[in-house]
Each structure stands twice: as C-alpha cells, then as structure tokens.
C-alpha cells in the first residue's frame, strides 16, 4: 500500500517513485509481477493518471520496471535494477570524490569516512539481528518489553 504525504514538498510523482522503489527493493513487489494499470493506481491514490505515468516512466528509466506494449508494466528482474542502482551510486560517489579532491580533502580522510559508514552499517545490522533474536525470545516466552 502506498501512502502519500500531501504536506511533503516533493512532487507527488517523486513520492510514488520512492514508495514503489522501496516495495520493489524490499521484495514487496516480486520480479515479473504485473504493476497496476496507470488508471487503477491513479484512482487508488486519488491522483491524476499523468502523475502515475510519470512515476512509471521514471521507474522504467531507472531499470525497476519494463513495459510490454498492450499488456502493461512489470517489475524488472532484480539484476537489472540492481545493476542500474549500483551504476548510479558509483557515479554519485565519483562526483563526490572529485569535489572532495578539488576542495583539498585527502584520500585517507575519504577512505576513513567510507570505512566509518560501512562500520556503522555493520553495527546497525548486528544490533537489528540481536533485537530480532531478543524479540523472538520474548514472544516465545510470552514476555513483554514495556
């Protein structure tokens, strides 16, 4: 289910793109599955069909969807959108690294920052795994964390 925030300053189509990307990446929309028609999703979200069409077009450009003429839009295989996503991220990283170099930031500092981001991500995953284990143990024992 997609919930839009009408107080958000971003255009509605960008919110639709973000929500659908999250659903695809998380597995909520499986590769090969058919997307709702533009009209039906527009009615469900109470938005103009052009807004949904614009979101679908962007998702197709980013490799998340593909269209079969006369049949509709479908979720692309993971490899296709994952490769596109990695390519975009590497382009962004390259641009940031060039700006940092031009600003006099050392390679060592950039490497330290990158390592810190990866370390913090690993710690978050470990904490989440511990929390999931503790949560399942608490539920198994009928415990509560209140």
Could you list some keywords that capture this structure?
2 domains; disordered C terminus; single chain; 146 residues; mainly alpha; Arc Repressor Mutant, subunit A
Q: Using only CA atoms, what is the Rg? A: 20 Å
Strand content: 5-15%
Which class of secondary structure composition applies to the elements? Answer: mainly alpha
Helix content: 55-70%
Low-confidence stretches: 133-146
CATH homologous superfamily assignment of the largest domain:
Winged helix-like DNA-binding domain superfamily/Winged helix DNA-binding domain
CATH topology of the largest domain: Arc Repressor Mutant, subunit A
Termini separation (Å)? 29 Å
Give the count of helical stretches: 5
Strand order of the largest sheet: 1-2
Largest sheet entry: 2 strands, antiparallel
Question: Number of folding domains?
Answer: 2
Account of the protein in words:
By secondary structure, the protein is mainly alpha-helical. The chain has two domains: 12-77, Winged helix-like DNA-binding domain superfamily/Winged helix DNA-binding domain (Arc Repressor Mutant, subunit A); 79-140. Helix content is 65%, strand content 5%. It has helices spanning 12-26, 38-45, 49-61, 78-102, 107-140, and strands at residues 65-68, 72-75. The protein has a two-stranded antiparallel ribbon with strand order 1-2. The model is unreliable at 133-146 (pLDDT under 50).
């Amino acid at each position: 289910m997609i919930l839009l925030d009408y107080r958000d300053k971003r255009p509605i189509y960008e919110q639709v793109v973000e929500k659908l990307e999250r659903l695809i990446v998380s597995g909520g929309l499986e590769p090969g599955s058919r997307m709702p028609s533009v009209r039906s999703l527009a009615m469900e979200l109470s938005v103009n069909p052009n807004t949904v069409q614009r979101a679908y077009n962007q998702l197709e450009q980013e490799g998340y969807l593909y269209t079969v003429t006369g049949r509709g839009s479908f979720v692309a295989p993971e490899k296709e959108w994952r490769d596109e996503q990695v390519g975009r991220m590497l382009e962004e990283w390259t641009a940031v690294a060039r700006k940092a170099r031009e600003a006099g930031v050392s390679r060592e500092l950039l490497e330290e920052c990158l390592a810190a981001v990866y370390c913090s991500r690993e710690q978050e995953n470990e904490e989440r795994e511990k929390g999931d284990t503790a949560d399942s143990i608490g539920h198994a024992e009928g415990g509560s964390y209140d």
